[in-house]
Amino acid sequence: MVHRIDKDHNRFREIVRGRIKKDLKKYVSSGEMIGKQGKKYVSIPIPQINMPRFRFGKNPEGGVGQGEGEEGDPVDGDEEGEGQAGEDEGQHVLEVDVSLEELAKILGEELELPRIEPRGNKAVETIGGAWRSIRRTGPESLRHFKRTFAEALKRQIAAGLYDPEDPKIIPIPADKRFKSQKMVTQPQTNAVIIYMMDVSGSMGREQKEMVRIESFWLDTWLRTQYKNIEVEYIVHDAAAHIVDQHTFYHLRESGGTKISSAYELCLQLMKQKYNPFEWNIYPFHFSDGDNWSSKDTEHCIDLLRDQIVPAVNQFSYGQVKSAYGSGQFIKDLQAAFKDDERVVCSDIQDRDGILPSIKEFLGRGK
Question: Is the whole model's pTM more than 0.90, yes or no?
């Protein structure tokens, strides 16, 4: 019975997986499930899956509910409902918990994303593996009884103290052996995502929601590629600040835009906390393409070319369309870095452009 239940459960999960893959674009462009995100799972609404239900038939012999009255007569105490009855079946919506890891697999399969090749590796000595090593010292709780008595037996035989007719094996402290783990050196791959977003007056609520949705999927994929990952958030208008996640997605300012302030703070953060020889660094910048002057744009390009890009795995710029933004910044970046694969620019016109943008950012396996 247990095996049958497992088989049915796996079949149901495959149906759900197929439905998610089929409607992936819809799920990516919607922020509904992000609001239902846990640490390891998200709840996804899956429509039009037939729900199991009992089907009742006629009972000519009578039984529960049989008595005086005709079919259709109202039950005492019930009032007739208003309006006309419909003949169409209501749409069932089932919320299914899907792990973030499974969601990342589906995203990777549909977009044909390559696995990322880490560039920052730190060799760390750690104690790991099975308890298969033996040592002469250790706590009594880790004493290996078989090896201890084997050592005692060898010692008594070598000393001529062992009597096969009266086999007594008495270990002494020198015979004791203890279980131990080996000290192994393992490469520890760490990654940090640095999100930067323009929060000036030209960035509206819809533009921020698009950034929130895309960053969720970027996070989901990158977390499957690295064992340890950290996320930093920077907001900027004419000045830049490091903030928490909630502030990043909800803050709105009314000032102008000076993009170089974000790049300078990003560079400062990298120098203080994230050594490029030990960390895989992924800066993502989202803006509507407005910058206060061409001179500041030139400064941004110099910061990227000389300091930021050489230290990171990939620099990604996403430009969300805004009614108030000029959209010039992406053109300047594309002209300056047209031959540099470490800089990826994506033009996100609306929510339908989020999935292709994710493909552009993650499709190079950097």
Answer: no
φ, ψ for residue 17 (rounded to 5)?
-60, -40
* One-letter-per-residue 3-state SS of the chain: CHHHHHHHHHHHHHHHHHHHHHCHHHHHHCCCHHHHECCCEEEEEEECCCCCCCCCCCCCCCCCCCCCCCCCCCCCCCCCCCCCCCCCCCCCEEEEEEEHHHHHHHHHHHHCCCCCCCCCCEEEEEECCCCCEEECCCCHHHECHHHHHHHHHHHHHHCCCCCCCCCCCCCCHHHCCEEECCEEEEEECEEEEEEEEECCCCCCHHHHHHHHHHHHHHHHHHCCCCCEEEEEEEEECCCEEEECHHHHHHCCCCCCCCCHHHHHHHHHHHHHHCCCCCEEEEEEEEECCCCCCHHHHHHHHHHHHHHHHHHCCCEEEEEECCCCCCCHHHHHHHHHCCCCCCEEEEEECCHHHHHHHHHHHHCCCC
Tell me the domain boundaries of the chain.
1-51+93-112, 130-181, 189-362
Tens of pLDDT, residue by residue over 194-237, are: 999 998 888 888 888 898 888 888 888 888 888 788 899 999 99
Secondary structure of the chain: what % helix, strand, coil (to 5)? 40, 20, 40
For 315, list phi and psi in degrees, rounded to 5. Answer: -105, 125
Positive or negative torsion for Cα 54, 16, 97, 89: negative
Model pLDDT, residue 51: 47
- For 84, counting Cβ atoms within 10 Å of its Cβ (0-12 exposed, 13-18 middle, 19+ buried), the class is exposed
Please report which helix (H) or strand (E) contains residue 234, including its range. Answer: strand 228-236
The fold for domain 189-362 equals: Rossmann fold (3.40.50)
